[in-house]
Amino acid sequence: MAMRQTPLTCSGHTRPVVDLAFSGITPFGYFLISACKDGKPMLRQGDTGDWIGTFLGHKGAVWGATLNTDATKAATAAADFTAKVWDAVSGDEVLSLAHKHIVKSVNFTQDSNCLLTAGNDKLLRIYDLSQPEAPSQEIAGHSAAIKKALWCNNDKQILSAADDKTIRLWDRSSMQEVKMLTFETSVSSMEYMADGELLVITYGKTIAFYNALSLELIKTVEAPAPINSASLHPEKDFFVAGGEDFKLYKFDYSTKEELESYKGHFGPVHCVRFSPDGELYASGSEDGTLRLWQTAVGKTYGLWKCVLPEDLATENSEQLYSSTPEIKA
């Protein structure tokens, strides 16, 4: 009997969830932040989805959210023309960085000292968080709104994806463009993996893998539906993707074979990410929920309890296997 995938459903948001990010593994476990059009980014325990707190202060939709590695700082990008830095322990707002247009992306350096922002004003901005009054460094070059901007190569370089149908690699010290990739359609998502210097991008129905330093194509995989986001497992055995048909797909990285697909959301999937330990992946949707999915279905982990097929015949089966299709976190 095949084990049934039972996602943990994290409710609380009132509008579409458009971005999510995990912290690294800390002494207190790992954490998950979600960006939502309701303007109220939320922090959760990563392995269970349990709500920890909501960051209050934005006056518009929040398009991007991130945590630093040790989950002590959070940053958010919003339609109120600001990027904000938060104390992720207390929930207090630390900094509000004014922009001239909607901010879509935020990303910390590894040491958490600098914040990279990008958005509809087509500029990349680097803020020194130890000197909040100092003007940001600006990098221009894109001809349309920037969707995502990420540090790479030990924070020596920057990757950016924009609505001008390009991905560009920039050198931080010279502030110059190193290389550019052009696509037939706008890139819908971009994930960077420092371990192996891999870049995972999605556009149309395509999930593509590139070397992040040379921007050379490694492989592409075609999905059954338009894909909004994809994430590669930390061990690089497989990857997951979600998009317009409400489904989550899991593929073998080596063979490109589709291994599983699950329908749990009631709207398009906007974002998907693996946890830092690879035990689960989180998805955010137009339906206003986050869902956590097990990488190895049936394993005891977080709120999931292992149920062996032979246990289903016991008298306790009704207690072990609830008829409800999902667990509320």
From TrEMBL:
Write down the CDD domains for this protein, in alphabetical order.
WD40
GO cellular component, as recorded? SMN complex
What family does the database annotate?
Belongs to the WD repeat STRAP family.
Q: Which residues form the signal peptide?
A: none
InterPro entries per the UniProt record, alphabetical: WD40/YVTN_repeat-like_dom_sf, WD40_PAC1, WD40_repeat_dom_sf, WD40_rpt
Q: What is this protein called?
A: Serine-threonine kinase receptor-associated protein
The biological process GO terms on file are:
negative regulation of transforming growth factor beta receptor signaling pathway; spliceosomal snRNP assembly
Gene name tied to this protein: STRAP
The segments carrying the WD repeats are 55-96, 96-137, 139-180, 262-294
